[in-house]
Amino acid sequence: MDLLNAFVAFANFVLIPATAYGAQLALGALGVTLIYGILRFSNIAHGDTMAFGTMVTILVTWGLQGMGMDGIGPLPTALLALPVGIAACALWLLATDRVVYRFYRAQKAAPVILVIVSMGVMFVTNGVVRFVIGTDDQRFSDGERFIISARTFREMTGLEEGLAFRTSQGLTIVVAAVAVALLFWFLNRTRTGKSMRAFSDNEDLALLSGINPERVVMVAWLITAALATTAGVLYGLDKSFMPFTYFQLLLPIFAAAVVGGLGSPLGAIAGGFVIAFSEVTVTYAFRKVVSYLGPEEWSPDGLLQLLSTDYKFAVSFAILVIVLIYRPTGLFRGKAV
Amino acid sequence: MGEDRYEALRDDRGNKDRSIARPGGGTLASAGTETEARAVPGHAGEPMLIGDAMTGGYGRGADILTECTIAVDRGKISVIVGPNGAGKSTAMKAVFGMLDVRAGQVRLGGRDITRLTPQARVAAGMAFVPQTSNIFTSMTVEENLEMGAFLRRDDIGETMEQVYDLFPILREKRRQAAGELSGGQRQQVAVGRALMTRPTVLMLDEPTAGVSPIVMDELFDRIIEVARTGISILMVEQNARQALEIADTGYVLVQGRNAYTGTGAELLADPEVRRSFLGG
Question: Helices (H) and strands (E) in chain B — how many of each?
Fold first, then answer.
């Protein structure tokens, strides 16, 4: 029995990756939940919004790399390009709002119509992204690859198991924490932030109080652009960028937002981690961890993997269905879909 | 949780009254000029606010009000009473611009405001407390008051202190979410929110609906106190007898028309009104 090695293996393959993935999902889900709270519809285009912002960031990163940059110290160059990506994404979102959503808002369209409309926006955004950057896998990370590599860890501790902590994972966790802190400060402490919560709470009363709906909507899109692009770039640095993958990310992100409670920022964060940990835990082969825990001859023959990684989306789906049946308002009492 | 679980399945977007913020027309940007209009002195003998011979209804529907007149003087209390479906709330909504007034006028301090949107009327010095969904449930009491003063750019601390002096319980609970308060306390938050704009006229749509008799008396006391500070009060009430007791002017509406008008005491003494509307 070797508890320490078992834990290190568990941390290396489940704890750290799931935490980073959870932070990425949480940032994505925050954008979804924000749009739901303010504009009252589930934004199907969110995955491709992330792709759009990330695409611009990648192009700028390549430009910087072409000029000879190779990371900002140990950090990736993409961090420098991120503000440009956010700005471009914000312009794109405001343009879609002006051209598409504003019309339906003026008609007081039902939320379900806006959902379908956002699907149209999704197809267009998706097309633009594929047209500009192509459908292939793109890598754009540079700088130091590891904070702690598996080999360094083994040499440091003398343990049999290695533990790798990549820069992208550390960066994801730090950036996500900062972004969330900023968002909560904004929503709870500033006049504009409070007016957004008021608008989300009771639209008519907000109008009676003199809150300008168009301004609230604009700020919501701007914040969504920042969150979506940041989430997309962190995911891309951690894994890689491919338009189709980002489209697929929509499912776990939605599951996270709904599990947490749509319209609840706190719920979106909790939901992100619930989904990430479920997905990674269910698809991880526990054989190694278990064999450390028991005597060698008890070591299992199988992989002890509940579900192949090919089916990881089934986890999000299953959680989504269970939550919608038994607790439609989510963990943090948001609004039901 | 049982039933409660499905409450959120319904659309709880606002107070289910689209007309509250009539779309189109009147931008909020004009708030500054509207506020200046407040200073315009009224005609001699003109009430602070008057809905003069209003005829109108919702959208393209039939007329609900017919030549209905509602007025309130500075610092006085006017109460609209009448049987169910008499158009009491409709009359108040007409004054606030939530339905089309097809004939007649609404004047505030002598200025014709018939064409202003509800939001523009708020900027002009009117405050409205809807009957339901009249607070931001997820926000704290203090944040509710802050949102009430959203149009103001000056220091709101003093007004907030006045509201807290008027409703001491709110000071105690100012960090608590408004949705967690009792029915009576929620009404206090709603009235407090409306007072934050420092209105000249406060309009209340059945402020005592669903609160206990003790709380009702207390609310009426507070409303009298508000009126004493010089704010005109126009309210619709189901509890006709108690409301007329504090009313300077009472309007009894029947089928959208003025049936009886007089001071509260006169109406209470009128045998006809007593028999028809006050249960003997």
Answer: 11, 10
Question: Could you tell me if residue B230 is left (phi over 0), alpha (psi between -120 and 50 degrees) or otherwise beta?
Answer: left
Q: Which chain A positions have a beta carbon within 8 Å of B119's beta carbon?
A: 207-208, 210
B9 neighbourhood in chain A, CB within 8 Å:
328, 336
List alpha helices for A67-160, DSSP H. 78-96, 102-106, 111-133, 150-157
Instruction: Give the helix/strand (H/E) hosting B205.
Output: strand B201-205
Q: Which of A108, A201, A210 sits opposite B139 (nearest CB)?
A: A201
Backbone angles phi, psi at A97, to 5 degrees: -65, -45
Q: With contacts defined as CB-CB under 8 Å, which chain A residues touch B123?
A: 210
Residue B225 is assigned to a structural domain of this protein: no
Q: What's the rounded mean pLDDT across residues B112-126?
A: 91
Question: With 90 as the cut, is the pLDDT of residue A131 above it?
Answer: yes
- Which one of B6, B93, B136 would you mutate to disrupt binding with A, by most A Cβ within 10 Å of its Cβ? B136
In terms of domains, do B186 and B78 share one?
no
CATH code where residue B117 lies: 3.40.50.300
Domain that holds residue B256: 28-125+201-211+232-280
DSSP A224-243: HHHHHHHHHHHHHHHS-B-H
Q: pLDDT confidence of A240, banded at 50, 70, 90?
A: very high
B207 & B114 share domain: yes
Task: Tell me the average pLDDT of chain B.
Answer: 84
Q: Which of B173, B198, B223 is the last residue of a domain?
A: B198
Predicted confidence band of residue A302 (pLDDT cuts 50, 70, 90): confident
Of B31, B123, B136, the CB nearest to A198: B136
Beta bridge partners of B204: B129, B235
Distance (Å, whole) CA B250 – CA B212: 23
Q: Nearest Cβ partner of B21 from A40, A204, A335?
A: A204
The answer to the question of residue B254 being in a domain is yes
Domain A3-326 carries which CATH code?
A: 1.10.3470
| A191 contacts in chain B (CB < 8 Å) | 146, 150
Residue of A nearest to B29 (CA): A212
In contact, B171 and B164? CB cutoff 8 Å: yes
Q: How many domains does chain B have?
A: 2
Strand, coil or helix: what is A157? helix
Least CB-CB distance to A205: which of B12, B123, B133? B133
- Quick: pLDDT tens for B19-78: 555 544 434 433 334 333 444 444 557 899 999 999 998 878 889 999 999 999 999 999
Please judge whether B128 and A208 are an interchain contact, meaning their C-beta atoms are less than 8 angstroms apart. Answer: yes
Residue of B nearest to A335 (CA): B8
CA angle A89, A95, A99 (to 5 degrees): 150
Measured between alpha carbons, how far is B263 from A23 in angstroms, rounded to an integer? 66
